[in-house]
Amino acid sequence: MLTELDGMQEMHGVVVLAATNRADMIDPALLRPGRFDKIIQIPLPDKESRKKILEINAEEIPFEKDPNSPDYVNFNKLAEATDGFSGADVAAIANTAVSFVIHEHLDKYSMAGIHAKKDSTAEEEKETVAKQDKEIAKVEKSADSAKVTMRHFEDAIKKVREQKDLKIGQKVELSAFR
């Protein structure tokens, strides 16, 4: 990058921007006057910002809003539990919570699937299919009214934290072998 910057002719109106998650690894020569003169640090979101990110990402999600319900989604508690998360990590929590609900209902749906006996008669198969159709209809109806609960969000935080820790571990491992 230094070679590119040194080889550039002065161009009016051109601004060069760079971004990194590892400011500690920037070559000091890049920070000399006339190169990258300004450093703008964008910190991780604070508790209130994390709460707003969660609320925005949950706008289209059916979740339990009744504070008297044991499944109530408390965004204040979720924001507290996500200290150290980036905005992208916090946004991923809402999507992950939704995926948990979808998987729960897919599991119910597959359990309600057709399991006809090999030696059953045509009449028995019709009865079995009719029962399974009713069961599938119940599952579909419950899926339509499904809500993301606090438990889903808490599980999502754990999963995103694990993925985040894995990414950090991979970065450390990769940099150790350079």
CATH architecture assignment: Orthogonal Bundle
Task: Please tell me how large the radius of gyration is.
Answer: 26 Å
Give the helix tally: 6
- What structural class results from the helix and strand content? mainly alpha
What is the H-and-E element order? HHHHHH
Please tally the β strands and state the result: 0
Which spans of ≥5 residues are poorly predicted at pLDDT below 50? 171-178
- What can be said about the biggest beta sheet? none
Distance between the termini: 19 Å
CATH topology: Helicase, Ruva Protein, domain 3
What characteristic shape results from the CA principal axes? elongated
Hey, roughly how much beta strand do the residues contain?
under 5%
Helix content: 55-70%
Instruction: Quickly count the domains.
Output: 1
Calculate the mean pLDDT score and round it.
78
CATH class: Mainly Alpha
Summarize the structure.
56% of the residues lie in helices and 0% in strands.
What would you say this structure looks like, in words?
With 178 residues, the chain is mainly α. It has a single domain (45-176), classed as Helicase, Ruva Protein, domain 3 (Orthogonal Bundle). Helix content is 56%, strand content 0%. It is built from six helices and no strands. It has helices spanning 2-7, 47-57, 75-81, 87-111, 122-144, 150-176. Helix 2 (47-57) crosses helix 3 (75-81). Mean pLDDT is 78; it is low at 171-178. Residues 1-44 form the ATPase AAA-type core domain.
